[in-house]
Design goal:
With 475 residues, the chain is an all-alpha fold. The protein has two domains: 6-191, no CATH class; 194-474, no CATH class. The protein has helices at residues 6-19, 28-44, 48-67, 73-101, 107-113, 121-137, 142-145, 152-164, 177-180, 194-219, 232-263, 281-287, 290-304, 311-329, 333-353, 364-379, 381-384, 388-400, 408-437, 441-462. Helix 2 (28-44) packs across helix 8 (152-164), helix 4 packs across helix 5 and helix 14 packs antiparallel against helix 15 (333-353). The radius of gyration is 23 Å and the shape is globular.
Length: 475
């Protein structure tokens, strides 16, 4: 069930009505659990059991970390994390291992390749790991221990709600246990931040339905072998279009998730903070998919040693974290190479910045923004074309097709739907600069914002593209 489907709108409306009904107030969490299970089962009813199995593992292991034998706390947390990762590895990476290491005629290899990919498995697995790690780390802190109910039924309800809450169930943001669990409690309709919900939902649906869904109808030309006959300029514009599409698609989903959570009185962490204005790769990862990058930093990079054991170890930790982060995105070696490319960029950037200070060079930030954006955009090719031979063929066509005629319709179309993303980032820069210079300008930006959101709502109704799944559903 897509956020853009009429069925989803009906589900939200019915759930909201029941959720805020005074006579059902004590059942608010069960109502959201029921809506979440219905939401997941609508798309993959045959794999609902896997979500419930994952939840069950986390219920038992997190409960035992708090209320089990003191000497076995670490054991319970460890086996819970291992089982979570084993389920993820089996279903998500079984096909990759079968395809890579076993011959096509092998029965085991054929079985592994045929395994279905459960929607959202990466996201609800990481949230389960967050629950176990946070519970173990905070096991002796009374404020956190109080969040793990002694009543196992109540605790099971809490974990099922935490992992299954439908706005973030299939594509995040990845919400950490210590951030979400304290929020669970009765909510009132009068406490809803209606303006925030409106702005966030309208912007999210605009980015998805108008920008991403229109761009996808043209970036489909990047599919092999269609791109081989296109001019170099057209191929570059397609890369630009896909860069804008993947941002609009995932940032749009994240904004919709934030708006829906706020509608029910819950707060999710911001997942995108205008990443295409980043002047460094480190800054890019502080702005892009923030919930994933912070998860990898907190639960992987720092436990590996972070930057505490010298430069070489720091570079290795960066690359290992990014390679694993790349594989998290998809079960193909191209995603690992994508992660490695970003890991190398982060390591090289740290090496250079430790030795050279260019901060006072005129125009240096603008140049760096261009370099980071160009590098990031080129590496998105590994997302669009997971087959290495197709990536190589695309790069060859990019270099060799200078003489071919340009597809002006495609170029114009991509340029047109790139403008909203550019304006989105430019508006942020101008607003921050204006507010920093003169607080009186804040009101003017507020007035402009209201007109803008009215225009966005009009475009959603009149200029939406053909409906398509969110890109990150495959991860």
């Amino acid at each position: 069930m897509l956020f853009t489907n009429p069925e989803f709108v009906a589900l939200v409306l019915v759930t909201t009505f029941l959720y805020y009904s005074p006579i059902l107030r004590r059942w608010q969490v069960p109502i959201l659990i029921g809506a979440s299970l219905l939401f997941y089962a609508y798309g993959q009813a045959n794999l609902l059991w896997l979500l419930l199995l994952s939840v069950g593992i986390n219920i038992v292991s997190s409960y035992l970390v708090i209320y089990g034998r003191v000497g076995l706390r670490k054991f319970h947390a460890t086996w819970g994390v291992i089982v979570n990762l084993s389920i993820l590895l089996f279903f998500k990476y079984g096909p990759l291992l079968g395809h890579t290491f076993l011959p096509p005629a092998n029965e085991v290899g054929a079985w592994l390749i045929s395994l279905p990919l459960p929607i959202g498995i990466s996201f609800f697995t990481f949230q389960g790991i967050s629950l176990l790690v946070d519970t173990y780390r905070n096991r002796d802190i009374p404020a956190y221990r109080s969040l793990i109910a002694r009543n196992i039924i109540k605790h099971a309800q809490t974990v099922l709600f935490f992992k299954g809450f439908f706005p973030q169930l299939v594509s995040g943001p990845i919400v950490k246990a210590h951030f979400f669990l304290p929020q669970i409690g009765p909510k009132r309709l009068t406490d809803v931040r209606w303006e925030y919900c409106f702005r966030t939902l309208v912007l999210g649906y605009f980015l998805k339905m108008v920008v991403a869904d229109n761009l996808k109808d043209h970036t489909v030309l990047m599919t092999y072998p269609y791109f081989e006959g296109l001019s170099s300029l057209t191929l570059l514009m397609l890369l630009l279009g896909y860069s804008m599409q993947i941002f609009a698609d995932f940032a749009g989903y994240s904004l919709i998730a934030l708006g829906l959570a706020a509608l029910f009185g819950y707060q999710f962490p911001v997942n995108f903070n205008f990443p295409y204005i980043s002047a460094s790769f480190a800054e890019f990862w502080r702005r892009w998919h923030i919930s994933l990058s912070s998860f990898l930093r907190e639960y992987l990079y720092i436990p590996l040693g972070g930057n505490r054991y010298g430069q070489v170890r720091t570079y290795l930790n960066l690359m290992a974290t990014m390679v694993l982060g790349g594989l998290w995105h998809g079960a193909a070696w191209s995603y690992a190479i994508w992660g490695l490319a970003h890991g190398l960029a982060l390591a090289a950037e740290r090496f250079v910045s430790d030795r050279i200070d260019h901060r006072h060079v005129r125009g240096w930030r603008v140049l760096r923004v261009g370099l980071v954006f160009g590098y990031v955009t080129m590496t998105w090719l590994l997302f669009r074309l997971p087959d290495f031979s197709h990536v190589w063929a695309y790069l060859q066509a990019l270099a060799a097709n200078l003489h071919k005629p340009n597809d002006m319709l495609t170029i114009w179309f991509i340029g047109c739907y790139t403008i909203p993303v550019v304006l989105y980032h430019a508006h942020y820069l101008l607003r921050e600069r204006a507010i920093g210079a003169d607080n009186r300008l804040y009101g003017r930006f507020q007035n402009v914002d209201m007109v803008t959101f009215g225009l966005l709502l009009f475009l959603i109704i009149t200029n939406k593209g053909s409906s398509g799944t969110f890109i990150y559903f495959q991860f």
